[in-house]
Amino acid sequence: MRPSLVIVGAGPRGTGVLERIAANAPGLYPDLELDIHLVDPFPPGGGRIWREDQSPLLWMNSQSQDVTMFTDDTVELDGPVLPGPALHEWADLDGRHFADRRLQGTYLRWVHERAVAALPPGVTVHHHPHRALRVGGPREGRQQVWLDGRPRPLLADTVILAQGHLDAELDEEQAELSAYAREHGLVHLPPDFTADSDLSALAPGEDVLVRGFGLAFVDLMVLLTEGRGGRYEGDTYIPSGREPVLHVGSRRGIPYHSKIGYDWTGERPPLPRFLGPAEVDELLARPGGFDFRRDVWPLIDKELGFAHYHRLFTAHPERTSVAWTDFEEKYAAAAPLSAELQALVASAVPDPADRLDLTALDHPLDGVRHTSHAELQDGLRAYITADLERRHDPAHSPDLAVFLGLLSVYGQVVRLGDIGSWWHGFFSYLASGPPGPRLRQLLALSRAGVVKFAGADLRVTAEDGVFRATSATLPGAVVEARALVEARLPDPTLARTRDQLLRELYEEGAAATPAGLLAVDPEDGRVLHRDGTAHPRRFALGPHTNGRGAGAFTRPRTNSPSFRQNDATARAVLTLLRDLSCRATAA
C-alpha cells in the first residue's frame, strides 16, 4: 500500500506546508512515493476565509506588496529557499494597493497549484471536499481520518491538522444573551466571521449595538452600507435607506490604528536588540517558567522603545537633545520600565509627544469624559482624523519603526508558545488595522448618522426586553437596541471548538495550554499529550495551536515564523515517511 499523508485544511496554511514538502522532498526523500489527501469543504488555496466566492467589497487589510506565500533569504530554515512573487508582483498591481479578498483567494489558488506541480512525480494529490470528523489509530501505526458523508476512513501514515480559524460554541455570557434574545424576540449575532454571518435580520433604520471595533467591525460596516446599495461621493456617504444605525463601542472605544501610508527610507533599526533568540532561550530555560507581564512584557516594551528612538534620533535629530550614541549606551544599560529609563527619555526627548508610551496607546480614552452624545461624536471623529493624518505623515516615522519592531517581536515570542490573548490583540490593534480609506469611510458614515460612537469600556446588559449599553466615556448615558452584534472572531478553545476532530482529540488526551489552545512541540509541530509525550504521527499548525504565528502568509523579508514552522513540519513529515519506508524495506 502506498504511503499516505492527510492534511486537514487546504487553506493557506495547508498550502504553505505543501509548498515546503515540494521544496524539501528532493533533498530529504528524492524517490518519494506518496498519496496526499487534502480534506477541506472549501476550495484548496484560499480555503474558507480567502475563498473566491465572497463579496468584492471586502478588502485585505494589508497592502499587496506586504503579502507573500514564499520564502526568502531572511527566513531561518533548514530547507531550501524557493522565492516567488508577492501578491502585487503576481497580480501586476501597485504595491500599495489594498486588494480585495477574492483576488487574494485567486493568488492562493495559484500558489497551491504551483506547489502541487512542484511535487515529485511519485506524489499524487487528492482533494476531498468534506469535513474531517475524527482521527484515530495506534500511536505507532496507520492513522484513520473519518470524513462526513464517507463510510470508510482515509488511512494515513501521518496527519497534519491545519484547519485555520475555527468556529466556537458560545461561552456563558454569549449563551445567556442569545437565550434572552430568543425569549424576547431580539436579534443577537454572536462572534463570527462577518462574511459568513446572516445580516438579513438587521432591519433598515434599526438601532444596532455593536461590541467590537476591530477588523470584524470594518467588514460589518462595509456589508451593511455599500453592501446594501449605499455609495460614497468624495467624503460624503449617500445612504440607500436600507442601512441600520450602528452604535459601536469596545474596550478601547476606538478603531484599530490605520495602516501606515508612507514607505520606509533611511537606516532601519537593528532588530532584534533586547528581545532576540538569546533572551527567548533564557526565558524558556527558567526552572519555574516565566510570566508574561513580569518577564516578557518589559523586554517587549524596551525593544519597541529602541526601535522608536533609533528612528527618532537618526531621522529627526532636531527633536532630540543628545547624541544617539550617548542615548543608546544609557538606554541599553537601563532596566526595562524603570524610573531610570523614563528619566533618560525625558531628558533626551524634550517633546512628550515624541516619547513612546505603550500603556497610553493601549488605553487611548482613559480619563476622557464627554457630557453629551454630540460631543462624543465630535471627539471620536477628531481622534480618528488625527490618527489618519499621523499615520500618513513621515514626520511621525517612528511609528513605522515601532511597526517593524512589532513584527520582530512577534517572530520571537512565537517560540514561547501560549502567552495569552492580550498580546495578540495589542499587536493587531497597532500593526494590523484597516486601510486608511476604510477609516475615511467610517468618518463619512459617522457624519451621515449611519455609525454612532458609543465609547470605551462598553458594558452590555439584557433587561426590560432590550439590550442596553453604557460607556465610561459618556457617563450616565444609555443606548437601547433590539439587536446586538458581537463584532469579533470566535475564540475557540479545545473544549469549546465546533471542530469535532479537535474536540475529540482533547477528550482523548491531547494537551491544552492554559488558554485552551492545542499544545504542540515547538520544534516540529507534533501534537502533545497530557503525559508530555509527542504523538509520532500527528502534527498541527495554525491559530488553534500554541505555535500560532502572525499568519499563514506574511510580509516579505521578515523571517516569517509561519514559514519556519511550515518548513520544520514538512521536514519532520518527510523524515518520518522515509524512515517508515526504510523499515518496511528492511522487514
UniProtKB/TrEMBL annotation:
Region listing for Disordered, in residue ranges: 536-563
Q: Which residues form the FAD-dependent urate hydroxylase HpyO/Asp monooxygenase CreE-like FAD/NAD(P)-binding domain?
A: 6-165
> The organism sits in which domain of life?
Bacteria
Q: Which InterPro entries match?
A: FAD/NAD-bd_sf (IPR036188), HpyO/CreE_NAD-binding (IPR038732), L-asp_N-monooxygenase_NS-form (IPR052189)
> A Pfam family in this protein?
NAD_binding_9
The UniProt entry, under SUPFAM superfamilies, shows: FAD/NAD(P)-binding domain
Report the protein name in the record: FAD/NAD(P)-binding protein
